[in-house]
Specification:
Layout: E1 2-6, H1 13-21, E2 31-35, H2 39-56, E3 63-67, H3 70-74, E4 79-82, H4 88-101, H5 111-135, E5 140-143, H6 148-159, E6 163-165, H7 169-180, E7 188-195, E8 198-206, E9 209-210, H8 212-216, H9 219-222, H10 226-231, H11 233-239, E10 242-243, H12 248-251, H13 253-262, H14 267-282, H15 291-305, H16 309-315, H17 330-343, E11 347-354, E12 367-375, E13 378-381, H18 389-411, H19 414-423, H20 430-443
Parallel strand pairs: 1-2, 1-4, 2-3, 4-5, 5-6
Antiparallel strand pairs: 7-8, 8-9, 8-10, 11-12, 12-13
Length: 451
């Protein structure tokens, strides 16, 4: 099988390639094509992957090619992973800076920052979807690009159910809760529902019995893992659920904005500077074999340890525990998804797919994040219980914002873009919304289409 990775110079590509190196089953990926517009990043990443293949000594490592020609990259692909970042990390840093200047959150997928990122990304994602439909109409597209739910919905306009979004946050949450309850994650049924970066784990069934109430009753166990420390046992018991970590931005918004404002550097600025150093080092042709991979390993360890540091500062939880450093493994989710489709090996995965009739408060085309049954025909969302009213409010409000972003990106309407900002629960004024759009337009040439 042939896999094409759009954004092939991106920092997390070695996670995907590492997962492929460990896959020795029949029908595995034999060819990986990296596509990126930035040739220097592409070259550095190709060196890291070469080091990975050499380190394993695997004679059947997937062959890697790199190109800056999108149609060439897509031609003949069986699967396409989309992991682009429009505007780069410089754009993310600007998204954070403009929002904080107005006293609101600028995180890359939540609040004003997510809207700005979406307005830049949706037109590009739609064009990529059209190119895939033309050059690789039989390919399955797995979308990593943030904001993942919004971008998946935009691409689905062209690709229908052949585009599926993934995120490792709910998988990591489910894995941590299952282990706390003494179960193997693969033996547990996770009742999780919401939008990308806006969901709740409402139950965890082991042997047909929901064991989440047992965890909610145990304060010590609740506050022994990342989400428990972020939200606190009392609030989790009030909700009767474990929220996705990104809901900390909603439930503790003032605390988080204050922590971000007081931080020496925003997350985007930190990653921009960190990765600038990594790519400069990894891209050097005079470095010995293995040096590029070693630089990537060091950079990734620092990146993971500092993840959501401002939220932990706001919650007073200190540094991350070793057990929290393991993510949900988005590369493992992607590989499991690809295997299930390509080999008709049925799997249950939490994915971003079109709603159909799963949540009655949303229309059939709305992309949601829920457990899905996956087979050769794609991902099929399972039936879930209705959302409680507090969750309905957030989910419908944020979905309305996403729809305004999609409309603004299609029409180029400044009024619709302002409406997207103004309707978001974390933006508190139409006046602020207008100033946000003006600030982002001044920073990002890619928003010049808005009139």
């Amino acid at each position: 099988m042939r896999l094409t990775i759009l954004g092939g110079g991106g920092f997390r590509v070695p996670l995907v390639y590492g997962a492929l190196l460990g896959d020795h089953a029949e029908g595995r990926v034999t060819q990986v094509t990296l596509y990126d517009e930035d040739s220097s990043r592409l070259g550095a990443m190709a060196r890291v992957l070469a080091d990975q293949a050499a380190a394993t000594g695997a004679p059947d490592a997937p062959a890697v090619t790199a190109t800056g020609d999108l149609d060439e990259a897509l031609r003949g692909a069986d699967f396409v992973f989309s992991a682009i970042r429009v505007g780069g990390l410089e754009g993310r840093a600007a998204d954070e800076r403009v929002a904080l200047a107005e006293g609101v959150l600028g995180q890359e997928t939540v609040g004003a920052g997510g809207i700005a990122y979406g307005l830049r990304t949706v037109p590009v994602a739609r064009e990529i979807a059209r190119r895939i439909a033309r050059s690789a109409p039989e390919a399955w597209v797995i979308n990593f690009t943030n904001p993942a739910g919004l971008v998946t919905e935009a691409m689905a306009e062209e690709l229908g159910d052949r585009v599926i979004g993934i995120c490792d946050s709910p998988v990591g949450l489910g894995r941590r809760v299952a282990r706390l309850l003494g179960a193997r994650p693969e033996d547990a049924w996770i009742d999780y529902v919401g939008l990308n970066h806006l969901g709740w784990l409402r139950g965890l069934r082991i042997g047909g019995r929901d064991e989440l109430p047992r965890l909610l009753a145990d304060t010590g166990a609740l506050e022994s893992f990342e989400e428990g420390r972020l939200f606190g046992a009392e609030w989790l018991r009030s909700l009767g659920a474990i929220p996705n970590e990104y809901l900390h931005y909603y439930y503790f918004n003032r605390d988080t904005v204050r922590a971000y404002t007081e931080a020496q550097q925003t997350r985007g600025a930190f990653l921009r500077d960190q990765q600038r150093g990594f790519y400069a080092e990894a891209g050097r042709a005079d470095r010995p074999a293995g040096a590029a991979l070693a630089a990537w390993d060091r950079t990734r360890a620092e990146r993971e340890a500092t993840y959501m540091a401002e939220n932990r500062e706001a919650a007073g939880t200190g540094e991350r525990d070793e057990s929290d450093l393991e993510s949900g493994g988005y590369e493992r989710v992607a590989l499991a998804l690809m295997r299930a489709i390509a080999r008709d090996e049925r799997a249950t995965l939490i994915l971003n797919v079109r709603n159909r009739s799963t949540l009655s408060v949303l229309d059939t085309q709305a992309v949601i994040e829920v457990p899905c049954l996956v087979d050769a025909n794609g991902a099929h969302p399972v039936a879930v219980d209705p959302l409680p009213l507090h969750a309905v409010g957030l989910v419908t409000s944020v979905k309305a914002v996403e729809r305004e972003v999609l409309a603004a990106a299609a029409s180029g309407s400044r009024a619709e873009a302002v409406k997207a900002f103004a309707l978001h629960p974390l933006v508190d004024s139409v006046g602020v919304a207008r100033r946000l759009l003006d600030g982002y337009a001044a920073e990002h040439p890619g928003l010049s289409y808005l009139r």
